[in-house]
Amino acid sequence: MDRRSFLHTALVGLLGSRLLPFATPAAAQAAGGFSFDAVVARARETAGSPYVRPLMKMSPPFADLKYDQYRAIRPRDDMRLFADADRGFRMDLLPPGLSFQDRIEINLVSDGVAQPIAFSTDYFAFHPDFFPFPDGRAPSDLAADMGFSGLRLRHPVNSPGVWDDFAVFQGASYFRAVARDTLYGLSARGLAVGTGGPDPEEFPIFTAFWIHEPQPGDSALRLDALLDSDSVTGAFDFTIRPGIRTVMTVRSVLFPRRDVKAAGIAPLTSMYFFGPERRAGVDDFRDAVHDSDGLRMVNGRGERLWRPLRNPPRLETSAFADENPRAFGLIQRARDFAHYEDAEAHYERRPSAWVEPEGAWGKGAVTLVEIPSADEFTDNIVAFWRPAAPLAAGAETRFDYRLTWGAVEQDDQPVARVVATRSGLSILDPRERLFVVDFDLGLTDFDRVAPKLEVSAGEAKGLSIDRLPEGNRARVGFHFIAGDLPSAEFRLWLASDEVPASEVWLYRWSR
C-alpha cells in the first residue's frame, strides 16, 4: 500500500465509536464546516460529565519500554503528513509508551470536514537493535488498540528544504517550540491547576487535536485542542507562525466543573540549576546551567520588572500582584557561550517565551514557583498568571494571548536592562553578603543615572555604581547584612532626574 492510499484509509478508519457528530462529513457540511466553535461546544458538553482519563493499557511493542527503547521508535519520514504536496508544513505522529500512556485523538480538518486518524504502527520505524523487526517495520495489525501520544510540527525554519521540527505537543497539556537558531528548552502548558498551592497539583490533558490542513504558500499552521481534567475542560485554538521568532496566537475557553481557586493561565515551565548568583554546594566545570535566567514582566502600569531565577533551598512562591498585565515571560538573557562553557547542551541557544495578553485579564498576580533541584534534568521553575477570583463552576471564561518563542527579546521602550546578577560573601566581613547587578544602559547616558534601592528587612549599605569597561554598561553594588533574618526582598533600579530609567530588579534572598 502506498503512502497516499494508507493515509486515506487511516482518515476514514477505525475510530467510528469516538467520532463526534460534527466530525462526520454530512454533519460538518450541514453546520457550514468544522470551526473552533465545535471544539468549544464539545468542551462545554464534556464539562457536564465526570472526567474520564483516556489512559491506555499498553500492549507490545509499546509496553514496558525503557528510555532508550522509546527513543528507538522514530516517525517514518515517508509517513509524515502533508509530505506528498508542496506545502510549508509537515507533521509527525508520536508513539505511545514510557510516560506517554494517554490515548490522544488526532484529527485532520480538510475542506471544512474533520476526520480522525486511525492508529497504526506503519507510522513508525523500530530500530532493530531494540525490537524484533529486522526491517524496522512492525506488522500493521500489531497494537491496533493503541493510540497516538501527540504530534510534532515541521517547517524549514533554519534552511530551505530542511524540515526542522519547531513545535511538539505531547504529554498532559505540555507543548514547546523553537525559533530560528534555537534549541528546545522551556515548555508551555495549556493550563496549570493547583501549582504552587496547598492542594495537590492537577495536570490537565489535551485529549484531542484538530490540525487544519495547510495549503501551498501558508506561513502559519492552525490547530485546535480539547483540554480535560478533574476540575476543568477547555477549548484551545493555536495559530502558529514559525521563523526568526515563532509566534503562537492562542484563544482559550475554560469550563470549570468545580470552583478552581488556584488556576494558572498561560503557564511556562523551565529549569534553573545554578548561575553566578549563587554557586554554594555546586562542583561543576561550567559557570552556569539553566534554560531560563529570569522572569520578565511589564505590569498594567507599564513598569518593567526583572526577577532573576533561583534554585532555592526550599520551595518558594512569589506573587506579583497586578491588574490587566501587559506581558510576562521566562527569558534566557545570557546568550554568550562563555557564560555556560557547555559544548553539548548549548544553553545559550535555548529560547525565551513571552506571553502578551489580549484583552483585559483583570486582577490577579504573575506567579513564580521555584522548586529546589539537585540536577539539570528536572524542570523546577513555573510562571503563570493567577486570576484573583476563582474560576467559577459552570462559568465560561476566556483568555486570549500571544506567545512568542525566540532568542531575541521583544521590547518597545529603550530602558536599561539587567544583564547579570552576582553575589557572594564579603571578603571584609563574613556577616555581610555582596550583591552586584549589571545593567546594559542602551541609549541611556551613564552620567545621568543613579541607583535606587529598597530592602524589606535587614540592612543594605555601600550602594555604588561604576562604569564597566566594555559597552555602555553599569555595575551597581551593595552589601547586605541579614542578621538573624530568614529572608529579605530587594528592589533596585536606575533613575535619571528621579524618573525610572531601567527595569526594576527584584530579588528574594533566603537562607
Which descriptors apply to this entry?
Immunoglobulin-like; 511 residues; disordered N terminus; single chain; globular; mainly beta; 10-stranded antiparallel β-sheet
Describe it:
6% of the residues lie in helices and 41% in strands. Residues 1-31 have low confidence and may be disordered. The protein is globular and about 75 Å long. The protein contains four helices and 33 strands. The chain folds into three domains: 3-175 and 196-256, Distorted Sandwich (Beta-galactosidase, Chain A, domain 5), CATH 2.70.98.10; 263-389, no CATH class; 417-510, Immunoglobulins (Immunoglobulin-like, Sandwich). The protein has a 15-stranded mixed sheet that branches. Strands 2, 6, 7, 8, 9, 10, 15, 20, 23 and 24 form a ten-stranded antiparallel sheet that branches. A hairpin with an 8-residue loop joins strand 6 (150-155) and strand 7. By secondary structure, the chain is mostly beta strands. The protein has helices at residues 3-11, 25-30, 36-46, 67-71, and strands spanning 73-75, 90-94, 105-110, 113-116, 124-126, 150-155, 164-170, 174-177, 187-189, 191-193, 205-212, 221-228, 232-241, 246-256, 263-270, 272-274, 289-290, 294-298, 304-308, 316-323, 327-331, 352-358, 363-370, 381-387, 397-406, 417-425, 432-440, 450-455, 459-467, 473-481, 487-496, 499-500, 504-510.
